[in-house]
Structure formats: C-alpha cells, structure tokens
Amino acid sequence: MAAPAKTTRPKVGLALAGGGPLGGIYEVGALIALDEALIGIDLHDLDVYVGVSAGAFVSANLANRFTMAQIARIYIANQSSRHPIRPSVFMRPALREYWRGASALPGALIDAISDLVRHPLDIGLVGAAGNLQRAIPNAVFANEPLRRFLQGLYNSSGHTDDFRELKRRLHIVATNLDTGRPVVFGSAGHLDVPISTAVQASTALPGLFPPVEIDGEHFVDGGLLRTLHASVALDTEIELLLCLNPIVPFDASRSTEAPERIRLFDKGLPVVLSQALRSLIHSRMEVGMARYDDLYEKDVVLFEPKREDTLMFFSNVFSYANRRRVCEHAYQSTREDLWRRRKAIAPVLERHGIGLNTKVLRDRSRNYSTGFGESLEMPDYGNLASRLNNALKRLENSL
C-alpha cells in the first residue's frame, strides 16, 4: 500500500547530465513532458538543481525561474524578440585559439629542428615533431559568445547572474583542468563566480571549447569525472531526486526502424567511437546509481532515451539545426516512458505529494508546444507598450 500523500511542499531536486547541444535540446523536450505530467510541483521552483555540461545550461535557466514555456520559446522556437539566439552562440570558430597556435608555431619549429640536430638518433623525426603539439589550438569553437548570451539573459528583469541571489539552490559542476577534480560552483567557496561563467566552464568540452579561466585556474567539462553528479543534490535536504540523462548506448538488436539489423561496425569510426563513449559514460552512471541506493534513503527517479532510439544515437551530438525535431522526439519519448512505467513511478511520486496526470499522458494529440498557447512569442513584461498591445490583441480575438 502506498504511503499517504504529503500535505506539505515536497522537497525535490533535479539533476541533469550532459550531451552537447543535442543532449540539452533533448532535456528541454523531456522536461516539458515532465512539467505537464507531474502534478504538485513546478520544475522552475524546485529546491535543488544540479547541472553538468549541457545539463548545467538547462538547470541554470530553471533555477533562474524561467518556465519551460519560456525556455522553449528562447532555445527551441527562437521566437524571443528580447533574447534571440543564433547558432553562432555555440558554433563560432575559436579565432583566438587559432591565433595562439599560429603564434606558437615558429618557436615550436625551431625547437623541433634544434632537438633533431642535437640528438638525431635518440629523438628522431617523430620525437622532434612532439614540439609542435603546443602550436595545436586548444579548441575548435569559442565559448565566450555563450557566456555573453547567458549574462545578458540572466541580468534581465526578474533574473540574476549571481548564485547568492537565487531563491533556490543551484550547483554547476566543472572539472579543474590542473587537478582533475570536480568543482561545484554555487557551493560554499564558489558562490562569487557568475552563473554564466560557471555554465561556460561546465560546458567546455576539451578539444571543442577552450578551458575557462576563473581566479587563475582553468576549468573544463564537468562530465569528465561523473555523468550526473547526483550525489551533490542527494547530500542536501531533498527527499526526491529527478534525474535526466540524454546519452545512452545504442542497442541495435532492439531497433525496429530498419528492415535489417543495424551493424555499427559498418557505419565507420565515428559511430564506433560514439558507441564506446556512450557505453563508458552510461556504465559509470549505473555504478553511481547503484551506490546511491546504499548510501541514501531517498527516492531517485531516472529518465533517459530508450537504447533502441536511432534518432538520438545517429543524430549529430553537436547539431543545433534540428532542435524542434529532437525536442518533439524527447517530449513524446518521455510521455511514453511515463505511461509505460506509471505503475512503478506513481507510488514513488505519491510519497512526496506529487501526482501523475494520466489524462494528459493519454492525450495523443499533444505536442511539446501544446501548453504554450497559439503563439510561442515570449512577451516582454518589462515593456508597458508590449503588454498593452497584447491585451488589445486578446480583446480583439474575444470580440
């Protein structure tokens, strides 16, 4: 028999893993499905948020009290006149890194030739060429545009770029490049770092984005050490933790979308490496989740794509162009997951005073923007003329 529902406000946390821009978009679609299906909580008003890499990007917006509708309007539909977002925010070439590499090339060549001349037998051509590695750029894309975009977004009316001014607790996890240890921005000793800078650091995947310098130290992607860092949330006062991981290994034996069984070996090296990386990341997360059962007397509910999900596996992890398609796919997949697991999930949620809206889950006509109204345009509440214009439009439609 399920425990009676609580009458007090449930203490709930949210932990979001990484996965590149594609993973972040998937998380938005999945969270829209959860937001409309879970009764008794608002995803932008939880007690604790933990974000890693792309998950840091999404959780920081929620902790800043942006609703799922606003997040979808800004990042998916790109229909916010106040905060338009362009692919260049994520995919602008790291020209500064290219210039740094080019500037270091002459000195690296001199050192390589010098070593080869002085120690031709000991070092050899390959060994001497090792001097050239310092001329290789540290990144392909710049992440400063992302920081500036988030800084402007969080400094808008009703929001903040300061961890200390948030009404709810936000933890952004990054990795210290020089020590290889995690750093939790938003925790004691790391509260003075702007939220936008913390997100920039947590999403700095080595090789793609440059390390972020903060107080003389360099930080990179928070997912290098752990997938979710759920323990950061579980160590707080929360009683229920919702987890979302968008990256899972692909199981070709379950796929029904191809006439013949998919052989990943035939797809080339990038696909093989992707499967290897996903398997490593996911197995690491499974070990951590198993440990949480022993260490904490708290409920943890994990949501992630199915292993036979061909769209999520074969889509470009760093693609931004097909965001609406991925968001809708995540929305529908999460709805299906909630319905399929409803008998197991509902009692867990009920223990914390949260209900499951089965009526919404049964409605097959819904899509990710159904609950946002006819227009996805986010009104500028700071502009009186805009508010008046919207009111007149509503009056006109009513008449």
Reconstruct the topology from this structure:
Blueprint: E1 12-16, H1 20-37, E2 38-39, E3 48-52, H2 54-63, H3 68-76, H4 88-91, H5 95-118, H6 124-129, H7 144-154, E4 169-176, E5 182-185, H8 195-202, E6 212-214, E7 217-220, H9 230-234, E8 240-244, H10 269-295, E9 299-303, H11 310-314, H12 323-340, H13 342-350, E10 355-356, H14 358-362, H15 384-398
Parallel strand pairs: 1-3, 1-8, 3-4, 8-9
Antiparallel strand pairs: 2-10, 4-5, 4-7, 6-7
Helix pairs in contact: 1-2, 1-3, 1-12, 2-8, 7-8
Q: Number of helical runs?
A: 15
Using only CA atoms, what is the Rg? 23 Å
Please state the structural category: alpha/beta
Distance between the termini: 52 Å
Largest sheet: 8 strands, mixed
Q: Count the strands?
A: 10
Give the low-pLDDT segments. Answer: 374-399
Order of SSEs, N→C? EHEEHHHHHHEEHEEHEHEHHHEHH
Overall outline: globular
Share of helix, binned: 40-55%
